[in-house]
Design a protein that fits this description.
The complex is a heterodimer. By secondary structure, chain A is an alpha+beta fold. Chain A folds into two domains: 58 residues, Arc Repressor Mutant, subunit A, CATH 1.10.10; 122 residues, 3-Layer(aba) Sandwich (Glutaredoxin). Helix content of chain A is 40%, strand content 13%. Chain A contains eight helices and seven strands. In chain A, the strands form two sheets. Chain A has a five-stranded mixed beta sheet. In chain A, strand 4 and strand 5 form a beta hairpin. In chain A, helix 1 packs antiparallel against helix 2, helix 2 packs antiparallel against helix 3 and helix 3 crosses helix 4. Chain A is globular, with a radius of gyration of 18 Å. By secondary structure, chain B is an alpha/beta fold. Chain B folds into three domains: 216 residues, Rossmann fold (3-Layer(aba) Sandwich); 89 residues, Ubiquitin-like (UB roll) (Roll), CATH 3.10.20; 93 residues, de novo design (two linked rop proteins) (Up-down Bundle). Helix content of chain B is 43%, strand content 13%. Chain B has a five-stranded mixed beta sheet, covered by helices on one side. In chain B, strand 9 and strand 10 form a beta hairpin. In chain B, helix 15 packs antiparallel against helix 18. Chain B is globular and about 85 Å long. The chains are: A alpha+beta, B alpha/beta. At the A-B interface, helix 2, helix 5 and strand 6 of A face helix 6, helix 8, strand 3, strand 7 and strand 11 of B.
Chain lengths: 205, 431
């Protein structure tokens, strides 16, 4: 399906931010992913027209970056860190508990399109290892038990917006640093919630 | 040993709302900008930065004032803030972005004033959704208050800032890869020469690329003078630095200290020692790319030069401590896997080499190793970084490939017994 007017309007606003159209390619790919949960062929055509490059050029960029997905993701993208600080703080047991709960292997999505599981490299939460991101919202200081509780909560409550602070208060432990500032903004899709691309959402408290 | 708070003072003083522009203004915020606008002498700003002797906080440690001095003349020049913090162990930029975004924005405006730049980009890694939101919100507040846009605070100065989100590629922390990424291309590093950013950077125009922490230091330097800044720390490593401490310490976190103290003192004071009173077996002094030190080397001083002389690097300021029970082969495998995953694929020694190193270590870690694996590891490493020396020689465009060699040389130099323990003691007879 091609993009509707609302999406195109957002796309044009993003393009205007940059001296050269092509710079908007990254943010536009996020728009595509917000729409479909992955970078669809239709979106590739749309984006190539928007920024005046070929479809192959768009594809070559989208396939380079790990946050642009080639297949449809679930509602919740569970990214478990396995880099050095998490590795030595037993991220393996967190990975195993996610695998056990969801029945998924690395990069797999369940049939209900609820969860996608991936093992990822450093997410900058090393002081709060082991750490996980749900739709790019960070939870630090997890245990295998808390991880399963978190997955259960996601499955049962199906929150529309993922807010890092809420996840952290419910399921997290040691943090990399004091987060201090109360925050109820988050991500509503399997793309980072960020104002410039219009994917940030505020949760009513 | 105490913290010296320059960059993290405001966020400590006003923990709950340090990100808010009114709170920042009340706490002396944007006063450095007003000062430079009043003096209206860009040359002075550059001189203050040169006087401060501050060296880039991204990893390479290049003197910032010198970098600014290299910027070629052109009508269009750009400033790009490197907030693609992805070096395993590092989370210092995250706190600066999340909790004190206006300090960075003020630094950006002053930098652009000094170098006659009209457009700046803050490139933040995609996984930092929350920090990016905070920065974007702060940028919008700054526009509303007249600190950004046309005729800043009634002067001739104009500046636009765009916050740009990356998409999950460590390599974009390398400055020329970052510029490619910002141009909407694959994040592949460019060859230097000719692509020195100061001459041929973003859109082939002269471009300054600076780290978040570096530019966040600018307001303090302007308010207190470069000479005052240079009094902190030690010669060659002036000022304070935010170290990210993680691993097996009791209290991990970001700590801002003057450079020059020993790693041991740092770990004891701020990390409160090692969990369960264990001993340190090894530690990484400056992010996953840096060769490791052993538990017997905790007296090394935390300065760029001391660490370099001891055969590693202070890098991004990430200290990862591994206790006596850590399986270092697994640890090395984790780091090598990281680089194998993050290799951009341009240069054959890195693309193929890191993958092979990962597979060989995987084989050893799973108990299927061979005695010949040791020489195979060395051979592959030698193809990426000839001679396995430090600082590394490179057969690649950027230092990512040689970074994957660091944990392996660390294992071979200091912990070869651990590696040998995981290999079979007898050579099986072919049947």
């Amino acid at each position: 399906m091609s993009w509707d007017n609302e999406l195109l309007e957002r796309a044009h606003k993003i393009i205007e931010l940059y001296p050269q159209k092509r710079s908007a390619l990254g943010p536009l790919l996020y728009l595509a992913q917000e729409k479909d949960g992955f970078i669809s062929d239709d979106s590739i055509v749309e984006i190539s027209n928007l920024v005046d490059i070929t479809e192959v050029q768009v594809k070559s960029v989208s396939s380079f970056y790990s946050m642009y997905k080639e297949e449809q993701t679930g509602t919740y993208l569970l990214s478990v860190c396995k880099s050095i600080s998490c590795e030595i703080n037993d991220s393996r047991s967190v990975i195993n508990s996610v695998k056990e709960f969801t029945g998924l292997e690395n990069y797999e999505t369940d049939q209900d399109k609820l969860f996608t599981f991936e093992e990822v490299e450093c997410i900058g939460a090393c002081g709060g290892a082991p750490a996980v991101q749900v739709n790019y919202e960070t939870v630090e200081g997890l245990t295998p038990e808390k991880t399963i509780e978190m997955c259960e909560w996601l499955k049962n409550d199906k929150p529309e917006i993922i807010v890092a602070d809420q996840l952290q208060n419910k399921f997290g432990g040691t943090k990399s640093f004091d987060w201090a500032i109360e925050d109820n903004t988050g991500s509503a899709y399997t793309v980072p919630g960020f104002q410039n691309i219009g994917t940030a959402k505020e949760k009513d408290n | 040993m105490k913290e010296t708070l320059l960059l993290t003072k405001h966020m400590r003083d006003f923990p709950e709302n340090s990100h808010n522009i009114e709170v920042y203004e009340k706490n002396n915020g944007y006063s450095a900008l007003k000062k430079v606008l009043k003096e209206d002498n860009p040359e002075n700003v550059i001189n203050e930065i040169k006087d401060s002797n501050i060296r880039g906080r991204g990893g390479a440690g290049f003197p910032t004032g010198v970098k600014w001095g290299f910027l070629a003349e052109d009508e269009d020049r750009y400033l790009v803030i490197n907030g693609d913090e992805s070096e395993p162990g590092t989370f210092k930029d995250r706190i600066l972005l999340e909790r004190d975004p206006h300090q960075l924005i003020e630094g950006v405006i002053i930098t652009c004033f000094a170098s006659n730049i009209k457009k700046a980009f803050i490139y933040i890694r995609g996984e930092y959704a929350k920090p990016a939101r905070r920065v974007q919100e702060a940028v919008e507040q700054a526009y509303e208050k007249g600190y950004l846009g046309d005729n800043i605070l009634g002067t001739n100065l104009s500046l636009d800032i765009v916050v740009h989100l990356g998409a999950g590629a460590y390599i974009c922390g390398e400055e020329t890869a970052l510029l490619n990424s910002l141009e909407g291309k694959r994040g592949e590093p460019r060859l230097k020469p000719p692509y020195f950013p100061a001459v041929m950077g973003l859109y082939n125009k002269p471009t300054l690329v600076n780290n978040v922490e570096t530019i966040s230091s600018v307001p303090w330097i302007i308010n207190n003078s470069g000479k005052e800044y240079a009094k902190l720390g030690v010669e060659g490593s002036t000022g304070t630095r935010i170290f990210s401490l993680s691993g097996h310490v009791r209290t991990p976190g970001n700590f801002e200290i003057e450079m020059g103290k020993s790693f041991g003192e740092f770990v004891d004071t701020f990390g409160n020692g090692i969990k369960d009173d264990k001993k340190v077996k090894a530690y990484i002094p400056g992010g996953a790319s840096a060769p490791w030190f052993t538990g017997d080397q905790l007296d090394i001083k935390m300065t760029i030069d001391d660490v370099a002389n001891a055969g590693s690097m202070l890098g991004s300021g990430a200290v990862v401590v591994m206790d006596e029970d850590t399986n270092l082969v697994y640890a090395a495998k984790s780091i090598v896997s990281f680089f194998a995953h993050e290799s951009c694929g341009q240069c054959t020694p890195c693309r193929e080499g890191t993958t092979w190193l990962e597979m060989i270590l995987e084989r050893i870690a799973s108990g299927r190793g061979r005695l010949s694996d040791i020489s195979l590891l060395v051979d592959v490493c030698d193809n990426i970084s000839p001679g396995l020396s430090w600082p590394p020689k490179m057969t690649t465009i950027c230092p990512l490939g040689p970074s994957a060699v660091s944990p392996i040389t660390s294992l071979l130099d200091n912990f070869s017994d651990e590696l040998m323990k995981m290999l079979p003691t007898k050579i099986p007879i072919a049947q």
